[in-house]
Predict the structure.
Amino acid sequence: MDSPGLATLNRYLTPEAALTGTDGLTPIDRILDAVRSHLGMEIAFASRIYDGVREFTHIRADCPVPVAPGVAEPLEQTLCQAVLDGRLPALMHDASQHEAASPMPITKLLPVGSHLNVPLTLSNGQVYGTFCCVSRTPDLTLTERDMATLRAFAQLAAQQIEGDLDRQRSAADVTERVAAVIATDTLTVLHQPIHDLRSGRPVGVECLARFADAHERGPDCWFAEAATVGLGQELELLAVRAALKTLPHVPADCYVAINVSPDTVISGALRALVSGASRNRLVIEVTEHDAVSDYAALAAELHWLRNHARIAIDDVGSGYAGLRHIVDLRPDILKLDMSLTRHIDTDPARRALAHALACFARDIGSTLVAEGIETEAERAVLARLEVPLAQGYLFSRPMPVVAAQQLLLGEREAPPLIALADLQPVEKAKRQA
């Protein structure tokens, strides 16, 4: 990379370019401010070294400086390299007194008076870059004790940098992994039937995304990680497209429920995907793991989507799926979270809340679906509370689309309810995803 040159450097030689204390400082910025203040020096910076250049990554100063973060210059033209090579001492009280410092462009441009420099060394011994303090005037009071202080702060900075590098590598791994799934369309959809609690007949299925490493990492991890690298919406839309492809495998009198986050709904990307769907066949389940930032935008988009799908609110009674969510969005279906249905047969508080929500759903014209039903006792209590629909391991686990199709078709004639004596124990660790 070419040197910035005097013309380029002079662009930065303005008061506006001086990096003074502002909000949003990084940990490295704070470390630089602390060491600069402690040593009584005007400028402190951290840099990284790669491919024969030195790039400034962080600069803190109380005066105009001729460089800015992101500026890189040939390494051989820097005081830092001369220090690393041993041509200059790590502590210079007056840079003008050192012959090797004079040819460096920065020496006269700043100018450089006193200069302290130590390497930023990672735990594996790799020299990442340099950590420096500079004043524009000489300072004969600096001592080796000051150098020890600089080294201590440099070690803190190196630890922070190493953590940042680990996070960057992790993000790169996530990006590569998620992008590969999106590029190759390698996402599987399972169906979990939803049953009428009175008749036992299936009325629909919930589509659940699964990935190749399902035994190691659940789908929640995939979607959460994808969101951290900006690919959450793309992965969701891939799952929506995959779920819609399964619609022909579901009997005509059953519906297909698809999970979508509020942000993906607000984006408007669902319109093109569901424009040909029928309200009787498609349900969009709005899932929430974060607070909704714009209820008006979400409600407006759901209003359009209602032409082609019914709207469900997932995880009612858990997280952010609270009363405001229900009142503002006016859903067609409420899904009672499994945390409220689990052990409902032995918990009066859960029974009272489920009963209240069932009455509430009827009053606003919504249908209540209980999730996570695992025992006949739980099913019986919910039926007595007039909760109309349910899903869970009592009825069936999530299964391949063709298997679910066979189950749905097989239960049209004589749908049996599973007896308590026929149940196998269900481990808590294997509860509904």
Q: What stands out?
A: The first helix runs from residue 5 to 11.
